[in-house]
Design brief:
four-stranded antiparallel β-sheet; alpha/beta; 10 strands
Length: 365
Amino acid sequence: MNATPTAAPDAQLPAQIAGWARELGFQQVGFADLDLGDAGERLRAWLARGFHGEMGWMAHHGTLRERPDLLVPGAVSAICVRMDYRPADTRMIARLRDGEAAYISRYALGRDYHKIVRRRLARLAERIATAVGCAVIQRPFVDSAPVLEKPLAARAGLGWIGKNTLLLNREAGSWFFLGELITSVRLPAAAEPAADACGKCRACLNICPTDAFPEPYVLDARRCISYLTIEHPGPIPEPLRAAMGNRVFGCDDCQIVCPWNRFARPTAESAFQPRHGLADARLAELVLWTESEFLERTAGSPIRRIGYERWLRNLAVGLGNAPGSEPVLRALEARRDHPSGLVREHVAWALARHARRMRVFISPS
């Protein structure tokens, strides 16, 4: 295939792309060249500190992460988009304060965003190819390949990378997904990246339940609840379990307290609305799902990827942190002899935690 950059056929193409992107459900689009500056150097420094934990894939692919033109030979531009995902009212703070509720990160309450955003980007690519009228090299990405999507989006003017390491936008906060269309069509890059507007705010750093930010703009994934409940394959480190509270899939605390999220708008996408009652589910109910129920009720959901065993592991930790009510204790007892050693370990921890509380409660003053 021809690797020569494709010139835009006329000056109207960028505006046309922005219009097509809005028609496809994206809230914002921006263009960037593929020079990521010092992003690769910062990634290597982060990896050197071991902050990626057991996500070995973060260290793979050599320079591909910082050189999208090597990932997509012939590419010269990135079309970066964002799509809002937060449902209108899922009572996040109330759910976190209810110890018997299961808190699931808001991005995972609906359908899996990977397929939805990628399909829309593929349709955008088709429109661009038709408009250009000649051979075009294009490839969509949605958090699924070695692409440094946040630095790219920042260069495209979609926002700045905040102290919580998420992309922040003055008009939209951070409740959105990112996607990229790497293309051989040369498009005008944003005049300059968005300025950092975090200022002296430390709300996200201070709220983190497990102190996962060793410094501003740096995340130690090994302490991050999202990593622990989703990416980490083995036992959750015992010193971190109590701090996890009832967060059983992901964590939104640093977004909930971010002042810029007062500007975030609820999603209009039906695919991102809560399914199967997960926004209001109770820990004691979810842990009693059979594996077939888990597979059925997480079909098309980001939750499916962690598998049934890790799902029960996470719920056991949540139940260990919950009040010692009859439903909570009964649910734990029901999983005491589960075939998985990983599940049994966390259930035993949870039961022992409740037993210690009970001893303290009934001991004479």
